[in-house]
Amino acid sequence: MTRQKTGADVYQLVTDKIIQAIEAGTPPWQKPWTGGAGSAGFPRRSNGEFYKGINVIILWCIAAENGFRSSYWLTYKQAKAMDAQVRRGEKSAPVVKYGTFEVDDPDSGEAVVRPYARGYRVFNADQIDGLPDYFYGADPDEPRDLGTEPNGDLDQFFAATGIEIRTTDEPQAFYHLLDDYVHMPPIATFHSANGYYASLAHEMVHATSHAGRLDRNQRFCRKADLAFEELCAEIGSAMLCVSLDLVPDFAQSAAYVEGWLRSLRNDKKYIFRAASEAQKAADYLLQASSEQTIQHAA
Fold this sequence. Notes:
Elements: H1 8-24, H2 54-66, E1 73-74, H3 76-81, E2 85-86, E3 93-104, E4 111-124, E5 128-129, H4 152-159, E6 165-167, E7 174-176, E8 181-184, H5 193-207, H6 216-219, H7 225-243, H8 250-263, H9 268-297
Parallel strand pairs: 6-8
Antiparallel strand pairs: 1-4, 2-5, 3-4, 7-8
Helix pairs in contact: 1-7, 1-8, 1-9, 5-7, 7-8, 7-9
């Protein structure tokens, strides 16, 4: 396995490619493994419109924690208007509505536009009885053995970073901050080895946020920084893929981060700040693996 030289030119290329793909328009993000309820896709409002920005992260996390299969989220009043009923004892999820309003400027007397953010609560369709059938998600997919084979060199690279990787049949890829380990579904359940290692790279970048590594969790610890951390992980994984001769799917990465950028009004500087942290994470993993490999050789 050969590794491309890391540097500002490669990292800038990755960042530019992702921005270019976002500006060209992207399809919804699709998970690269089989199994689980991820086919529900992006969270939707009762009218079918997709949620955007930080709301996507909030609702994805809550859906994963509770095993919700439906992608639809409704307010209590919306459910009642459809002759449906939220089940007793169900807990709502917080979302944020962004908008603008006009006020008269006290100095010039001219109308100026001001942004606002207002919170409200929603329930997943799986918490509501009596909705039309299309609101409810299909039965979860079973993980399928697609025969995807591992790459020994890449397995050795990620093992040499010193970050623990656990594999079970649970169809989720995630980094567990409290216990400091990365969880991956079996590689055989992935559509391609490239998809497996790209997903693993994403979670390994998350792992660099640990206090014993780059300590991003202390520097970016507010709820709003969840979006920033996801940007770091996806851009960092693309950078790592380039360095490891994997083929990064820039359209897939763009689909993943597009909503986060919209939540910050398409602030281009934001993605470049995230790219800077992503570069540090990619460099950390490359260096940690190289140092471990050299120690073993010695």
